[in-house]
Amino acid sequence: MDVRGLLHDYNRGRRDYSGVALHGVDLGGLKLSGIDFQKADLSGAVLGNADLSRANLSQANLTNADLGGADLSGANLSHINAIGADLRKASLVGADLTQADLRAADLEGSDLSGVNLTAVALSGANFNDVNLFGACLQDIDLDEIDCQGADFSELASCQLSSNIGTTHRWLSWGKH
Length: 176
Description:
Blueprint: H1 3-11, E1 136-141, E2 157-161
Parallel strand pairs: 1-2
């Protein structure tokens, strides 16, 4: 499927694009609210500044995708593979990231208010200046995460583990 076909079908009311292969496609800045990309291959795709609010991206491949500045509020992002993805300044308010793989992802300046981060893989992720107000962090290992400026003081629930002090591990808490 190409971008032109996707937009034509989307504008005619189609929302189900489950399992489509859109590797490296440029959907940046498009309004695709409510779209269903469950199990889609969006690896390397450009989705920066796109409106993907209330989208279903569960089990999608977003490896190395550009989602910087995207609106992912209320989206289902459970079980996604977003290794190395750029999510800087993205709005993920109220999104479900249960069991997402965000290793080495860049979330600097993102809004994760009210997000479900249960059992998320975060090794090497950048959480600098992330808003976590009301977020649920359960079964999370915060080792090797850069989270300077992230505010962990207003979490909805928290069950974290960390090996602070172990060689090659860093963790910073609270506002600086």
